[in-house]
Design a protein that fits this description.
By secondary structure, the chain is an alpha+beta fold. Helices cover 36% and strands 21% of the residues.
């Protein structure tokens, strides 16, 4: 079975902030901390032989370098953006529960 690749892109949302709490004071660093918790939970459950996880901070980078993320942001969704095997799957939050559902779907 192929390794499932999960990339989480953090950045600054148009209204400010970069996490799912709905406030305007969060930063990409807050999203990275949220990512770290989800990463640990997923690796504990599935292991590194099943998953490849990475956090990418897009702050200060032209989003055209990440076309799949740029499309999602232009469509009005918020950071963080979670891309699974090259397809955007989640926006505005990093959810272990949602990712477990996606991983289960991909494994079946």
């Amino acid at each position: 079975m192929d390794i499932i690749k999960i990339d989480v892109y953090g950045g600054i949302n148009t209204g400010g902030g970069g996490c799912s709490c709905g406030c305007s004071s969060c930063s990409p660093a807050d999203a990275k901390a949220e990512y770290a918790e989800v990463e640990k939970a997923l690796l504990d459950k599935y292991g590194e032989e099943t998953l490849s996880l990475k956090f990418i901070d897009t702050g200060g980078v032209n989003l055209s370098a990440y076309p799949e993320v740029e499309k999602v942001i232009r469509a009005g969704y918020s950071f963080p953006i979670t891309v699974v095997n090259g397809s955007p799957r989640l926006a505005g939050a990093i959810s272990a529960e949602s990712l477990i559902e996606i991983i289960t779907e991909l494994q079946n």
